[in-house]
Automatic annotation (TrEMBL):
The keyword Acyltransferase does not apply. Coiled coil: none annotated. This is Aspartate aminotransferase family protein. Keywords: Aminotransferase, Pyridoxal phosphate, Transferase. InterPro entries: Aminotrans_3, Aminotrans_3_PPA_site, PyrdxlP-dep_Trfase, PyrdxlP-dep_Trfase_major, PyrdxlP-dep_Trfase_small. One of its GO terms (molecular function) is transaminase activity. CDD domains: OAT_like (cd00610). It holds the Pfam family Aminotran_3. The lineage of its organism: Bacteria, Bacillati, Actinomycetota, Actinomycetes, Kitasatosporales.
Length: 436
């Protein structure tokens, strides 16, 4: 066999073009003018020209880019040992005990994975085994992951969802106290339709901040009637905390806490390892035991000693630095100031959020959601040195979801940049008769 050809690095040039030549077309880049990042620190990201950007979007590094405690825990444990869960591990057991201390005592078992997609996929398997059902109910624009089965019940990825799934409208905050009752009626109707088609419901899977549905954390208690309904019909309530969890919403550690609920299964991911691939499930011993007797689950990299050390360091940072209370205080300030901006800028519609998870609707002259204007705001902020994104069924809701170390001074800086971007776009729209 002939030797493989020697690799010769291409000379510096158009990195985007080189990327296109070697990566799948399924990859996407943020912003019309992509950012070439080379390092990060706290809430800051730096590009190849050493320009600094305020990161108001990335919740994966929840306790800050390059967090020293997390990096130290990772490197020290990697030097010492990195073994999987089929060996006894002080680090793994200590981490599981610590993690469970943040949950209701009835939720007393942990299974660790690498990604939130894997966690949601496994939760679906567990729900099917425990209930004997096969059906899943999700919200109309839900995103729960990229594995085959979970992508097939994530309407934001495809309108053609699995025959064993039903998508229902997310609770509408404009309905106030009626939002929960209407949502429960929709869930019951979906469950009855599943039963009629031969799919007894196994789970109601809800992202607790309804991020892909446009960021809808309120009204408080809106999930409760639907959770009662699914349990009456033999299904389980699965709380997807992959985006909302670990103090993000500023009211306890988890999104379901705000609604006074105790789920049957909780799925975790993204901020759990501050960028290290760490995710998992928390559930009741009864569910874990029945699943364990029927099915096997092992993940080579899920729950290694390094993952456990990193997870513990993230918890230390959240607790010792009061990041949940900070998310609440900074988020309140940010939403108040955003509503002040809305009063002065007709492009800004409703402002919604909890803690450091905020959605801002961008609208046209008739008050309808406007994807193009939202994209223009996102690009305008990028040019100004602030990174955010957009979400929702129309792609017209600004998604502000910074690391938890985002402080009041960072919120003010974001607002200082957002105002001029809105003004410039509104003047441009006026000059173009509202069609820019």
């Amino acid at each position: 066999m002939s030797a493989p050809p020697a690799y010769t690095a291409e000379p510096p040039g158009d990195l985007a073009a080189r990327r296109d030549r070697v990566l799948s077309a399924s990859y996407r880049l943020f912003y019309s003018d992509p950012v070439h990042l080379v390092r990060g620190e706290g809430v800051w990201l730096y590009d190849a020209d050493n320009r600094r950007y305020l990161d108001a979007y990335n919740n994966v590094p929840s306790v800050g880019h390059g967090n020293p405690r997390v990096v130290e825990a990772m490197t020290q444990q990697a030097r010492r040992l990195n073994a999987h869960t089929r060996y006894l591990s002080d680090e793994l057991v200590a981490y599981a005990e610590r993690l469970l201390s943040f949950f209701d005592p009835s939720l007393d078992r942990v299974i660790l994975t690498c990604t939130g997609s894997e966690a949601n996929d496994l939760a679906y398997r567990m729900a099917r085994v425990f209930t004997g059902g096969t059906g899943a109910i999700v919200t109309a624009n839900a995103y729960h992951g990229v594995t085959g089965e979970i992508a097939a019940i994530s309407p934001s990825l495809s309108l053609d969802i699995a025959s064993s799934a039903r998508a229902v409208p997310a609770p509408d905050p404009r309905l106030g106290d009626e939002a929960g009752a209407q949502f429960a009626r929709d869930v019951r109707a979906a469950a009855e339709d599943l039963i009629a088609s031969g799919h007894r419901p196994a789970m109601l899977l809800l992202d607790t901040v309804l991020s892909s549905d446009g960021i809808r954390p309120d009204p408080i208690g809106m999930f409760t009637p639907a959770v009662e309904a699914i349990r009456e019909l033999g299904g389980l309530y699965v709380a997807d905390e992959v985006q909302a969890g670990f103090g993000r919403l500023g009211a306890g550690m988890w999104g379901f806490d705000r609604h006074g609920l105790v789920p049957d299964l909780v799925t975790l991911g993204k901020p759990m390892g501050n960028g290290y691939p760490l995710a998992g499930i928390v559930t009741r011993a009864e569910i874990a035991s029945i699943f364990g007797r029927r099915d096997r689950y092992f993940n080579t990299f899920g729950g290694t000693s390094v993952a456990a050390a990193v997870g513990s360091a993230v918890l230390d940072e959240i607790v010792e630095n009061g990041l949940i209370a900070s998310a609440d205080a900074v988020g309140r300030q940010l939403r108040t100031r955003l509503r002040d901006l809305a009063a002065r800028h007709p492009m800004v519609g409703e402002v919604r959020g909890a803690g450091l998870f905020v959605g801002v609707d961008i609208v046209d002259g008739n008050g309808a959601l406007d994807r193009q204007r939202a994209a223009a705001v996102v690009d305008g902020l990028r040019e100004s040195g602030v990174l955010i994104s957009a979400a929702g069924p129309e792609g017209a809701t600004l998604k502000i979801r910074p690391p938890l170390v985002f402080g009041t001074e960072h919120a003010e800086l974001l607002l200082d940049h957002l105002g001029p971007v809105l003004t410039a776009l509104e003047h441009g729209c006026d000059a173009d008769s509202g069609h820019r």
